[in-house]
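To the team - magnesium ion complex, inputs and output below.
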Amino acid sequence: MSAICLDIRDLSAVLPNGQRVLRSVSLAVQPGEVRALVGESGAGKTMIGKAVLGVLPSSVRIVEGDMLLEGEDLGKLQPKARRTLIGARTALIPQDPLTALNPSRRIGPQMTDRLVRILGWSGEKADTRIRQLLDEVQIRDPDRVLKSYPHELSGGMRQRVLIAAAFAAEPRLIVADEPTTALDVTVQKQILRLIVQLQREHGTAILFVTHDLGVVAKISQRVSVLYAGKVVEEADTAALFAAPQHPYTRALMAATPRYTDPFASLKPVDEAVLAGLASEIAAADQAWRRSHG
Amino acid sequence: MAEPLFSVRRLKVALPDMTRKPLIGRAPLVEILKGLDFDLPRGSVTGIVGESGSGKSTLGRALVRLLEPSAGSITFDGRDITHLPEAELRPLRRNLQMIFQDPMSSLNPRRTIASIIAAPLKQNGLGDNLKARVAEALQRVGLPQSFASRYRHELSGGQRQRVGIARALALSPKFVLADEIVSGLDVSTQAQILTLLEKLAAEMGLTVAFISHDLSVIRRLCRQVIVMREGVIVEASATDALFDKPQQAYTRDLIAAIPLPEIDAGWLDIPAAAKAPT
Amino acid sequence: MDEGRARRRGVPPRLWLAGGWLLLALLAAIFAPLVAPQDPLAQDLMLERLPPFWMAGADPGYWLGTDSLGRDLLSRLIFGGRIAFIVAFAAAIAACLVGSALGLIAGYFGGWADRIISRIVDVWMAFPPVLFAILLVAVLGTGLSSVILAIAIIDWTRFCRVIRAETMGQSRMDYVENARIAGYGRIGIMLREVLPNVVPSIVALLSLEMGIAVIVEAILSFVNLSISTDDPTWGGIIAEGRLSIHQAWWVLVFPLVTLILTVLSFSQFGEALKTRFDPVLR
Ligand SMILES: Nc1ncnc2c1ncn2[C@@H]1O[C@H](COP(=O)(O)OP(=O)(O)OP(=O)(O)O)[C@@H](O)[C@H]1O
Ligand SMILES: Nc1ncnc2c1ncn2[C@@H]1O[C@H](COP(=O)(O)OP(=O)(O)OP(=O)(O)O)[C@@H](O)[C@H]1O
Ligand SMILES: [Mg+2]
Ligand SMILES: [Mg+2]
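Output:
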């Protein structure tokens, strides 16, 4: 029996103005599971990932909830111990590749640094591993890429560099924040294959943030749908695609474009659904305020 | 038919390859774009798709003349802008807009969203009524007015992307290059942005070059599509023809790799033919 | 979870400590004639080598004791602070203006400008700084302004190097190209877009440089190359203290402690300011 890889319970976070950005989010990711996290732009998907990794902006405050990484309560650990644990067991594929890389350092040392410093690998081992992964993410010319500065790479190459860096350490959990937005579909498919391989061989769990329901359908086992910081639906992927329960999920599904039938899709969520969501959120907030004085 | 807004002939762009720079002297040039020919008709939306690293963003930078081509010519609105110096480009800039692929780094961390959207307006003589213009720009991309006073790090990825869109469209340019602008947006927000682009193209004659990896969106939005690989155009044709009868193997591979939003257990399996011998 | 996570808002304690010490020392230096208990130059051989106030034989008017000529140590430190602060501010600001401007140009324009400026910096850095300072003062002559000039001439490279690297990193960000798209000229972009993003580093360096200027001035005074030997300077007091270390350790220890506290405070203050200036880290 293995512990739940990531267990988020009733997580609430507030902005300085007192508004909640995360509304009692609960989410459990099993080892070897790809959990898709979808939802509106600005719903708080990135916020959840940052909360887990302990890198929330200082203006956002966690007011309630627990986060357990492989059974260890992150909230009960000393800051240093927490950082070490997170550093050793998790990796992030950030949403903004260019800002996540140091503009004045070459790619090579930036990628190997983490392996050498945090995981104590030898430089040679790190280098071999990185090269192998660059090859697997279909970087054609690894020598050039390793010697380049971030701005000399294309958007998709930067994204692949960060994917390779995250995979290299074989972490227990990867928070992948829209990791394939800059990748063409053939490379994307290869990355998805790699994820499945990692999942099978090492039992890596992945929290996969994306807007692409096509990707969700192909790779995830479970899905959480987020709206305004609240999980409005959570289901097995197959069940969700067979019969979405929440009106918002249904609206998202209906709006997802298909090249086979382009004009049937891409429409805004309709007013009635939005009104329903607004009252659902308001009710949740009211209940929360009541129980928290 | 009217002359196209852009005519691009045998366009080549070469950049210095700093990784092969000798200790003294210049870095050797690598050719990123290897001779491209195409036209962008006025008021049209043209899709640009292709392999990651094939030179789409570089092409965009050359079209809006952030880069100077090394050969060939770019004619914009009847004028050869291939080698125009920066000072002569400046009056044209208002009509040559680009929305960048990386929304985070394309916004100045020290400026508020309002000042980021206002700067190009002021610079291009649209400084009257600034507040109202900024408010309208935010509203068009579905961002609340309260965001005007925020900084880039206080927004989500998709919200940042929409700031970039708002900023470029606020100038009512003749041309905008949209580099992967909807991949970070949920589908209903995508719908809003695409509808906005369609409307501007139809009503204001806005010409759009739309770089995207999302072929479903391309099929919906674009009249013609350019497929790129390794710095050359492998196929260019009307959208429906491209999807229905792709001529090139690469185009067929692309279409085959589109993940449709439906469960398909075998989708990720590697086809037997492509498997490496063990 | 709550209290463990709740981040402390407002001013961090190290900023309080560092800023407090600097403010105290600065005010004392500005109002030296009012706050100094004694005339710093008045010698009284009857009072030579009085110990600090808590030791046996101390005199209540002489808190930190006296030196071998019977001059009040506290008053000398306060008056020495005047010169330390004048040198710190003037030299650091001069070095900062020159170095940051050149660094910004080299980093933003690159090419020839960068090659020339970087080469000059390399040549400059080849000289050992303290020797360079001694040499310069020897050439320029002693005196307050030549000390300031010498420090600025030596240390502009520190600003230039850091600001160049930082500017180069910033210039690679897409917002710089975005400003070109908006129709801004090169110099406008450098000043409007890039400069504000390197200001936090400039501020931190400036504060650090003030600390360094204090040390360099002390070293020059120590080797008797600063300003006239009559005026008390921290370096001068340390030099005298060294001679009487066995009889009166306080004449050496107090100025050293003052010097170290000031230098550390400057660097801490700079770091803290940098974080406060940064909207992202704030
Ligand atoms: N530092 C901050 N201060 C105030 N509000 C913030 C801050 N950072 C983010 N927000 C707000 O919090 C909300 C959640 O942001 P988050 O980045 O988690 O969204 P997201 O779900 O990742 O969206 P996207 O898909 O667009 O990336 C957004 O509405 C955003 O505007
Ligand atoms: N400043 C530069 N110096 C050197 N090479 C560069 C520079 N910018 C881009 N390149 C190279 O040019 C090629 C094309 O890059 P470009 O950004 O145009 O690709 P792209 O088609 O936009 O790819 P993506 O879809 O991944 O964004 C890449 O191989 C990249 O490494
Ligand atoms: Mg996000
Ligand atoms: Mg690109």
